[in-house]
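= Tokenised fold =
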Amino acid sequence: MDVDDDGKFTTDMKGDGSTSSITPDIGEKSHTSPVPITNDEFWDMLQRERRGNIRVRSLSVEHLTSPVLCMLGTTYNIEPFFFTSSINWIPSRYQEALSHGKGDHITITLPFVRTIQRELNSRSSTAPTPRSPATPRSLQSLSTDNEINTEKPLKMLNGDVLFIDLLAIHMVRSTDKSTIISYHPESRLVSSAKRLHLLMELVGDSVYWQNIFSKSKDPTFLFLAILWVEVILFKYTQESDVLKESRVEHTHDLHTLQAHLLHYQSLLHAFQLSVSFIDKTPNPAMESENFFDEQRDVSNELMKKECENLLNEIDRLQKRREMLSKRLKNVMNLAFANVNIRDSASMRQVAYMTMIFLPASLIASIFGMNVKEINPGTLGTIVLYAEVTIALTAFIFYVVVTLQTHTSFHKHGASLWKRAVWPIILPGRLWGKLKVIRRPVTPP
């Protein structure tokens, strides 16, 4: 994808009006499409002189192989860390090879959330996963109980699937030949490279972005447009029905949704840091004598405005994520409350059953007493039983009241000795309260 000086998007790399792509052969059992061009032809294409009116070129790399990696690294002087961090899903953002007035290299690697629609999910497919991007898991093999693993695709009740995709972009910024290289992990369901290429065509057809590209010569705006596209996809993910399944009858899935929402918080934070990185890393090529001060001012103002708009959109997504998280927490609390109500009803039924057998238990205890009124020949009597029971109950009540520091039987903060004589002090306190109550109130 090329962006011309007039802000128009074209897909002509060979210069003959055709679109070129390379899909390296990875074996007889591979599922890749036939190779349109060979590695040698791709190398010649990279070395071919660009047309003079090309401001920035975007290359989307999928099914990355060693020859293609070496060709890209040699042609554009790319550090190996970009490829290692991309292949291993390591989030990163950094600037290198800074040369004021000439250009630099900037890299952003971050994961984001994508949605597979119901009709696409009905096919046998695979999606990329952070742990094993080279060997994706089958969506049809997902467990139905939605185990809590935020790195696995999340199958929703409406048939859609959420999964984590990768955005890995390396940009070579210069005064005349800027290049954006994006790496895309393998996915047999949807080609990330082709999807990004299609979305970039939609950006090129946008009057809003064409107006920006016509006002500013800074190629970083294409980088920013890619971030805008991914944030919009994140927005559609959150605003679709897949995150609105908060009915109580699906409480076994609520904890899974909550875990994914917490994971999305970190993803949005990474997006926020990436946009701030773009805002705080101006293009050093704009300091060249090829640009006027007025052009720099217009470009800086537009960049600040677009970054601020993008940060505001990310902040809105953060607030919506918090709202969804609170909704889920509210539903989980309601579910636990319903469980407690059911448990209370069960305990009440058990208590009712106990009350039915309580008279029989009382009679059995009475007839089991060793008193001579019931069991002749024993020494105990009912009077002795009553005396011992009343005395022991009174002693236990006295000890409990004495050890309590907050009670109506003695003053607050009373010492242990005053609490120990509360049976003696209590009648005087009660008599004093009665006198206050009986005292007539004199009219003013």
